[in-house]
UniProtKB/TrEMBL annotation:
<dbReference type="GO" id="GO:0004586">
    <property type="term" value="F:ornithine decarboxylase activity"/>
</dbReference>
<dbReference type="GO" id="GO:0005737">
    <property type="term" value="C:cytoplasm"/>
</dbReference>
<dbReference type="InterPro" id="IPR022644">
    <property type="entry name" value="De-COase2_N"/>
</dbReference>
<keyword id="KW-0663">Pyridoxal phosphate</keyword>
<feature type="modified residue" description="N6-(pyridoxal phosphate)lysine">
    <location>
        <position position="47"/>
    </location>
</feature>
<dbReference type="InterPro" id="IPR002433">
    <property type="entry name" value="Orn_de-COase"/>
</dbReference>
<feature type="domain" description="Orn/DAP/Arg decarboxylase 2 N-terminal">
    <location>
        <begin position="25"/>
        <end position="258"/>
    </location>
</feature>
<feature type="active site" description="Proton donor">
    <location>
        <position position="324"/>
    </location>
</feature>
<dbReference type="Pfam" id="PF02784">
    <property type="entry name" value="Orn_Arg_deC_N"/>
</dbReference>
<dbReference type="InterPro" id="IPR000183">
    <property type="entry name" value="Orn/DAP/Arg_de-COase"/>
</dbReference>
<comment type="similarity">
    <text>Belongs to the Orn/Lys/Arg decarboxylase class-II family.</text>
</comment>
<dbReference type="InterPro" id="IPR022653">
    <property type="entry name" value="De-COase2_pyr-phos_BS"/>
</dbReference>
<protein>
    <recommendedName>
        <fullName>ornithine decarboxylase</fullName>
        <ecNumber>4.1.1.17</ecNumber>
    </recommendedName>
</protein>
<dbReference type="InterPro" id="IPR029066">
    <property type="entry name" value="PLP-binding_barrel"/>
</dbReference>
<comment type="pathway">
    <text>Amine and polyamine biosynthesis; putrescine biosynthesis via L-ornithine pathway; putrescine from L-ornithine: step 1/1.</text>
</comment>
<dbReference type="InterPro" id="IPR009006">
    <property type="entry name" value="Ala_racemase/Decarboxylase_C"/>
</dbReference>
<dbReference type="GO" id="GO:0033387">
    <property type="term" value="P:putrescine biosynthetic process from arginine, via ornithine"/>
</dbReference>
Length: 376
């Protein structure tokens, strides 16, 4: 919670649940990445928070953009990015979307199989491609599935095929898992990338770029290392595995760029117990999984939740959302401690919610409107 957000909520008093994002925090986070990794280009992951104000602020600072769709590409262009600062980073693309991106000037695409290579060769001939490889997500709060990427051994054939059909086999990418708390998590993936560079060189294909992906954490309930710690660990690994022949490198922070910049203001709708004498109260908020807090699924992301009741005595609570769906329970396995004095109508502040909240609240489920957002 920044002073600017606190002042906005105090003076504007917006009705209903809402997200407030402080652009000063976004700018500070971008500059922290640039200082920590000065020779690495920053490609902000637009999906984390595509608010036009966020994209414009980052474009003005010189950020590049990782886009998952043609719509996100158009948003980045509208914000002031030039096509050479945009990557079409989704490995699953319709061929007509590849063609549209190519028509917009996009020259960098991700792949993870030969079928995707064939699409790009037809729809965006001569462009650069990088192949995403699978890697261990140990240490991440939200390890990623096998939906994206291929085994490194297969990536050799994918990139050689790209070269043979006239594309520019540009490099390799990976993702070490969302909310990665281990600064050394990139080391194994970089070892695999360096091996790929050597094997492709033996086949006459010269790779030049390593996309280090995202995974940089936002601070929730637990402390996490700072950006400088990640920068030092990653650059040490790059030097260890590539020696003096350093590749170009890019990163794709999303959560780490905007997560800490946002606070959701919500309201207590109901406080109840399931039977007389229950020690644990149920606290229902006017926002839940379907209103923007989808990342509470399996309690993977545990947001800091504050009330205006200061140091009042607390007791454990189960926290749930307002919709008529039994899945709309935020925290039950590990209840939260909230003030015993908490009452219906009280305001609660959910911190660290600048990423992956408005984007998960796009449909008015049960008629509850999508999450309002204010960027200040």
């Amino acid at each position: 919670m920044t002073d600017r957000i606190a002042d906005f909520l105090r003076t504007r008093r917006p009705e209903g649940p809402c997200l407030v994002v402080d652009l000063d925090v976004v700018r500070d986070n971008f500059l922290a990445f640039r200082r920590a990794m000065p020779d690495t280009r920053v490609f902000y992951a637009v999906k984390a928070n595509p608010a036009p104000e966020v994209l414009k602020a980052l474009a003005e600072l010189g950020s590049c953009f990782d886009c998952a769709s043609v719509q996100e590409i158009e948003m980045a262009l509208e914000a002031g990015a030039t096509p050479d600062r945009i990557s079409f980073g989704n490995t699953i693309k319709k061929e007509r979307d590849v063609a549209r991106a190519f028509a917009l000037g996009i020259n960098m695409f991700s792949v993870d199989c030969e079928a995707e290579v064939e699409k790009i060769a037809r729809a965006a001939p001569g462009t650069r491609v990088f192949c995403r490889i699978l890697c261990d997500g140990a240490g991440a709060e939200w390890p990623l599935s096998r939906k994206f990427g291929c085994e490194p051994e297969m990536a050799v054939d994918v990139l050689e095929h790209a070269h043979r059909v006239g594309l520019d086999a540009y490099g390799v990418s990976f993702h070490v898992g969302s909310q990665q708390g281990n600064t050394g998590a990139w080391d194994g993936a970089l070892a695999s990338a360096a091996k790929l560079f050597r094997e492709l060189a033996e086949r006459g294909v010269t790779l030049r770029m390593v996309n280090l992906g995202g995974g940089f954490p936002a601070k929730y309930l637990k402390d996490v290392p700072g950006v400088p710690s990640y920068g030092r660990a990653i650059l040490d690994s790059v030097h260890r595995h590539f020696g003096n022949r350093l590749p170009e490198t890019i990163i794709e922070p999303g959560r780490g760029m905007v997560g800490s910049a946002g606070v959701i203001k919500a309201e207590v709708v109901l406080i109840s117990r399931k039977q007389a004498g229950d020690d644990v109260r149920w606290v229902y908020l006017d926002i839940g999984k379907f209103g923007g807090l989808a990342e509470t699924m399996d309690e993977a992301i545990r947001y800091p939740i504050r009330t205006l009741r200061g140091d009042d005595e607390t007791a454990p609570c189960i926290i749930a959302g307002p919709t008529c769906d039994s899945a709309d329970v935020l925290y039950e396995k590990t209840p939260y401690a909230l003030p015993l004095s908490l009452e219906i109508g009280d305001e609660v502040l959910i911190e660290g919610t600048g990423a992956y909240t408005t984007t998960y609240s796009a449909v008015a489920f049960n008629g509850f409107p999508p999450l309002k957002a204010y960027v200040i």
